[in-house]
Amino acid sequence: MTAKLAETQLWQHNLVSLIRSGLFLRAETGECYGLFTVVGVYTDQSKSAPLAKYSDARRARDAADIVNRLALVPPTAESN
User: Fold this and answer.
1) Any idea what DSSP says for residue 78?
2) Which residues of the chain have pLDDT under 50?
3) Contact 27/40 with Cβ under 8 angstroms?
């Protein structure tokens, strides 16, 4: 379980500044070349390149759920 969590946190770490900027709206799942992907949706409704790719749809949904939960948490005063 630790390896999976660390793997997910690695690419999510790159989203932190984008989420804090207010430009990131949510994460969605999709499919690309037979892999299940997680893409970001911005406030102008444009989509990012795949942020993560999985062979299992459940893992992609779980990763998108985690990112969406991170996006809902208001920034703390220490992050300023």
Assistant:
1) G
2) 1-3
3) yes
- 29: its two tokens: 């799942």
Residue 58: in which H helix or E strand, if any?
helix 57-72
**Judging by beta carbons within 10 Å of its beta carbon (0-12, 13-18, 19+), is residue 41 exposed, middle or buried?**
middle
Contact 68, 27 (CB under 8 A): yes
For the whole model, what pTM was predicted? Answer: 0.72
Whether 39 contacts 51, CB under 8 Å: yes
User: Where does residue 61 rank: exposed (0-12), middle (13-18), buried (19+ CB within 10 A)?
Assistant: middle
Query: What is the predicted pLDDT for the residue at 2?
Result: 47
HEC profile for 12-43? HHCCHHHHHHCCEEEEEEEEECCEEEEEEEEC
Q: What letter represents residue 76's amino acid?
A: T
